[in-house]
Amino acid sequence: MKEPPGFKSYGAIQQWLRERIRVADEVVRPCIKRCAIGSKPSSKWRARAIFIERKRRGWNLKKLPRRLDSVQVLHGAEDPALPMRYWCYDEMRFGLKTIPRRLITLPSTKPLAPVQWQFKAFYLYGAVEPVSGEHFFLECFHHDSDCFQIYLEHLAQRYPHTLHIIQLDNARSHSAKKLELPENIILMFQPPYSPKLNPIERLWQHRKDQLSWVLFSTLDSLRQTVTEILHELTPQTIRSLTGYPFILSALKHANI
Questions:
Q1: pLDDT single digits (tens) 99-114
Q2: Is 65 within a domain?
Q3: Global confidence as pTM
Q4: Which H/E stretch holds residue 247?
Q5: Of 198 and 38, which is predicted with more confidence?
Q6: Residue 178 — φ and ψ, nearest 5°?
Q7: Structural domain contains residue 83
Q8: Residue 30 lies in a domain
């Protein structure tokens, strides 16, 4: 901890200790806490947390069955008896610019890490199903309504015999007038300025934590690493990250 590179997380410290002195897990965290410097959250962040919690409570997913009765007809779902699946959708940018994260060092040690500023990137369009842990991703080089249209068509073709309810934010590309929704897809927009409501945000955070402080020379090398990370995803990991209790409870109430 005296060295400038420091550690990315408590898990990295535990691994370092296991390799050298084989300290038991239950002993590691109390030792680290005594070395860490903490501070109470400011009033601004406490107020922000309260605002987010109120927005979450105000978005009652238990009203979902009543809302579906009107939306299905609007979007022309031919067979009302189709099995329904609930997806959480979002896009994420992956670029060559270094992803910074906090480093753990001793109080008098300033953390240092290499950083590059190459502004080349691609976008990953993705949706996850909190109930089953299934996922569907598609890579694009732009973030616009055309790419979103392509993604919806691929999702509809991948699961043609299912009615898909997709939770997403209010980005302009999601509500463009030229969008032509497939017949088996329903878009369910979450309240404005409430990204915490979308479970896939936690998945993006988890993925980017694995890429933090890593320098890539080309987009191909970054793409290869992201592909390997996605292949390592398991349904159990996705369920643990995206299975928000209020969403699972609402889906159970709606028989989805």
A1: 999 888 898 888 888 9
A2: yes
A3: 0.71
A4: helix 245-253
A5: 198
A6: -80, 0
A7: yes
A8: no
* CA distance linking residue 56 with residue 149, whole number of Å: 28
Containing H/E element for 188? strand 185-189
CATH number at residue 219: 3.30.420.10
C-alpha pair distances (Å), 153 with each of 176, 181, 182: 15, 8, 7
CA angle 87, 89, 90 (to 5 degrees): 170
Q: Is 131:84 a contact under the CB 8 Å cutoff?
A: no
Quote the longest CA-to-CA distance of the chain: 66
Instruction: Dump the DSSP string for 55-70.
Output: HHHHS-GGGHHHHHHH
Distance in angstroms (rounded) separating the CA atoms of residues 241 and 126: 15
Structural domain range at position 50: 43-253
Q: Total structural domains in the chain?
A: 1
> Are the beta carbons of 59 and 190 closer than 8 angstroms?
yes
Residue 8 lies in a domain: no
